[in-house]
Amino acid sequence: MIREKKHRLEKDCYKGEKIVSFTSCIKQRTNVFVCKDLFNEFEKILIKELNRFECDSYIHLFMPDHIHFIIEGKNENSDVIKVMEMFKQKTGYWFSNNGKIAKWQKDYYDHIIRDQEDLKKQIYYILENPVRAGICKHWKEYRFIGSTIYDFDEF
Questions:
Q1: How many CB atoms lie within 10 A of CB 68?
Q2: pLDDT-derived band at 64, boundaries 50, 70, 90
Q3: Would the pTM of this model clear 0.85, i.e. be above it?
Q4: Which of 110, 104, 26, 105 has its CA nearest to residue 64?
Q5: Residues contacting 37, CB < 8 A, separation 6+
Q6: Nearest to 55 by CA among 126, 119, 118, 149
Q7: What is the DSSP secondary-structure string of the chain?
């Protein structure tokens, strides 16, 4: 019998006023986030789950074949990992019902952010992702980005 190695913290570590960075990839690194309509559809799903689990998004950025989120719990009832789990479940269902254009990889990477310096570093790393990939010359040109906290036009 093959046992998977546990690589995630206990669920309670993601509850409350936590800030967590998430990265999730599309299976086989298929480019799916290349049109504004799909970004808008998935952003609506994300915002609904953020509200449901009492969280905010410092940043959500959709690269063609993967996503980056930094999610913050607003209070002791918040559950940042549930936001990610439900986002992947609902968008996976959307993929399945709309031509099966893609599937999510089974898991995702997460990093609990412990201080403001780490938060700032993570946000700038994510903002520069499309620049490093050669998609644009400056992150402000990138269209598949959002936040419930910041207005990136003024960032």
A1: 21
A2: very high
A3: yes
A4: 26
A5: none
A6: 149
A7: ---PPP-S--GGGGBSS-EEEEEEEBGGG-----SHHHHHHHHHHHHHHHHHTTEEEEEEEE-SSEEEEEEEE-STT-BHHHHHHHHHHHHHHHHHHTT----B-S--EEEEE-SHHHHHHHHHHHHTHHHHTTS-SSGGG-SSEE-SS--TT--
Give yes or no for a contact between 111 and 71, defined as CB atoms under 8 angstroms apart. no
The candidate with the shortest Cα–Cα distance to 143, out of 130, 126, 132, is 130
Q: How many other C-beta atoms are found inside a 10 Å radius of the C-beta of residue 49?
A: 23
**Distance set, CA 83 to CA 43, 52, 124 (Å):** 12, 8, 22
Q: How far apart are CA 63 and CA 6, in angstroms?
A: 27
66 φ, ψ (degrees, to nearest 5)? -160, 170
Residues 6 or more apart whose CB falls under 8 angstroms from that of 77 comprise 16, 54
Interatomic CA distance for residues 59 and 122, integer angstroms: 10
pLDDT digit string, tens, across residues 68-94: 999 999 999 999 999 999 999 999 999
